[in-house]
Amino acid sequence: MDFVLRNALVIDTDPVVALPGTDVLITDGRIAAVGEGLTAGTVIDCTGRIVLPGFVDTHRHLWQVLVRSFLAEMSLGEYLEKILRPVQAVLSPEDLAIGTLAGALECLASGITTVQDYSFAPTFDHAEAAVQALRESGIRAMYGYGQPVFGPACSEEDVRRGAGLGGGLVDIALAPLGPSFSDITVVEREWRLARSLGLRVVTHVAGHDNPISALRDRGLLDANTTFAHGNDLGDDELKLIAEAGAGLSLAPAVEAAMGHGKPMVRRTRALGVPTGLGVDSVTVVAGDMFSLMRATLLSAHLSEGAHVTPADVLRMATIEGAAVIGMADRVGSLGVGKQADLVVLRADDLNLLGAHDPIAAVVSAAHPGNVEKVFVGGVRSQRQDVRLQLDGLSSAAKSRIRPGNR
Ligand SMILES: [Zn+2]
Q1: Which of 18, 168, 220, 373 could join 191 in a cystine, given CB atoms 3.0 to 4.6 angstroms apart?
Q2: What is the model's pLDDT at position 219?
Q3: 3-state SS of 364-388?
Q4: What CATH number is associated with residue 354?
Q5: Are 24 and 139 within one domain?
Q6: Is residue 389 included in any domain, yes or no?
Q7: β-strands 16-27, 3-13: how paired?
Q8: Low-confidence ranges of the chain (pLDDT < 50)
Q9: Are both 253 and 208 inside the same structural domain?
Q10: Same domain for 141 and 265?
Q11: What is the count of structural domains for the chain?
């Protein structure tokens, strides 16, 4: 369907700019034009509305809806031992699918239209069920197929089959434990397998033992890699990520809550590291991009380096995040020809009224309740049936999975 969003306050992200009284024309699921006086068969009046590109969550474990807010003051060690270890031992493909669907719909409801889902699927059946759930949700996704933290690595045969699950709105990436958490010979085998299958690698990273140098020394560091966290990486290691054109996904809310280390967003700005944002885990933080942007902005001053503005943070939540997972050619801004992944916010809601700077208002004051419409590839996301359905499904799953004692 061709349609025009008429008379919106349009916020684009590449570069960041606010355009009052502007139309967005969507043709065949893509952005055909941004300007004034545009016409199409269907007109959606967006007077009093903000239209901006859909948010890109660059690192998230979608299924963890099933253990939401399990212990909001949990440290990283407790998260690993009290949630991941016991839950991963019993999580069935059906559980994973339910959690993934619920997490993806939560994303869409709050304006996240692209998500990198780091799934910890222990078997091909788990991965297949999770990808099916992503498709059912209608979200655009990069599905990270990889081993559980407490479990065996996926077999090469399973990874080869998993690579075939992609298509349409779902890309497949390999999500191995990586150089901070597994032996370098295992890392080398996994990286080379991913490259041979044309898969991006997404992986957690920590500061000890210079993991980025280790990859570089073996010829494994390239632009097709997304690292998550790394708060205690040295500047030299961060520079290597920038030089390789790889990306870093920060999860400032989870990193603060679980004690990963000092916020690093000013360092990544200063060192030119492509930086995206990730909710990571709803076991300890909220699942929407608004609270994540706020956490990024509020924690920035605790980090040394370059000044970070609301516009910088909005870029991390959109176009720069898209670059971090290798999707900037498709999503993250309103460039002509890009996928029409869009969020429409009610600018006249009480919490946004009176804003002098709409960009700062979106970053510092908006919340998921302001989201009126969401489009993915020009298709409106609307799953009114979802709440009741998911309530039933997730309570059934919750009765089967058992986190450790609180
Ligand atoms: Zn993570």
Answers
A1: 220
A2: 97
A3: HCCCHHHEEEEEECCEECCCCCHHH
A4: 2.30.40.10
A5: no
A6: no
A7: antiparallel
A8: 406
A9: yes
A10: yes
A11: 2
Together in a domain, 320 and 236: yes
**DSSP-derived pairing of the beta strands 225-229 and 275-277:** unpaired
Domain span holding position 16: 3-53+334-380
Cα 125 to ligand 1 centroid, rounded to whole Å: 21
| 87: Cα within 13 Å, side-chain hemisphere | 29
* 63 CA from centroid of ligand 1 (Å): 12
User: From CA 205, how far away is CA 154, in angstroms rounded?
Assistant: 19
- Please give the Cα distance from 30 to 39 (Å, whole number): 15
Whether residue 343 sits in one domain with residue 257: no
Q: What is the pLDDT of residue 401?
A: 63
* Cβ count near 259 (within 10 Å): 13
Model pLDDT, residue 72:
81
- Tell me whether residue 393 is in a domain: no
Closest Cα to residue 380, out of 197, 111, 180, 120? 111
Residue 281 near residue 247, CB atoms below 8 Å: no
pLDDT at 174: 96
- Select from 259, 261, 252 the least CA-distant residue to 233: 261
Token reading at 138: 């209608």
Helices (DSSP H) in 33-84: which residue ranges? 76-78
For residue 239, is it within any domain?
yes
Is residue 387 in some structural domain? Answer: no
Residues, beta carbon < 5 Å, ion ligand 1 = 280
Cα of 280 vs centre of ligand 1, distance in Å, is 5
